[in-house]
C-alpha cells in the first residue's frame, strides 16, 4: 500500500536513502551523489571541451559540481525543524 505524504517534512520519518549523502567524481565525466549505503542517487555529467559540451548538451564541471553539492544537501533541508 502506498504511503501518502502530506508535507515534505514527513519524508524524513521513512528514509529509504539514509544520510549523509556524499559526492564522488567518477571517470572525469560526472559527479555521483551517494547515500550512506553507497546507493547512487544522482548523476551529474559534465564536459570541459566547449564543442563537445555543446554537442552533447552537458554541464561544465563547475556547474555539475555545484548541482551535485546542492542535491547532496537535501536531507538536511528536509529535516524536521527542532523546537
Count of distinct strands: 3
| Oligomeric state of shown chains | single chain
Report mean pLDDT, rounded to a whole number: 86
Kindly report how far apart the N and C termini lie: 32 Å
In terms of DSSP E residues, the strand content is 15-25%
Q: What overall form do the CA principal axes indicate?
A: elongated
The neighbouring-strand order within the major sheet is 1-2-3
Estimated radius of gyration: 16 Å
Going by helix content, strand content and strand pairing, the class is alpha+beta
Task: Name the helix and strand elements from N-terminus to C-terminus, one letter apiece.
Answer: EEEHHH
Regions with little confidence, pLDDT below 50 for 5+ residues: 3-7
Question: Short description, anyone?
Answer:
With 83 residues, the chain is an alpha+beta fold. The protein has a domain at 47-77. It has helices spanning 50-56, 61-72, 74-78, and strands spanning 22-26, 30-34, 40-45.
Folded structure, characterized:
- There is one protein chain.
- With 83 residues, the chain is an alpha+beta fold.
- It has a domain at 47-77.
- 29% of the residues lie in helices and 19% in strands.
- The chain contains 3 helices and 3 strands.
- A hairpin with a 5-residue loop joins strand 2 and strand 3.
- The N and C termini lie far apart (32 Å).
- Residues 3-7 have low confidence and may be disordered.
Topology of this protein?
Layout: E1 22-26, E2 30-34, E3 40-45, H1 50-56, H2 61-72, H3 74-78
Antiparallel strand pairs: 1-2, 2-3
List descriptors.
83 residues; alpha+beta; 3 helices; 3 strands; 29% helix; elongated; disordered N terminus
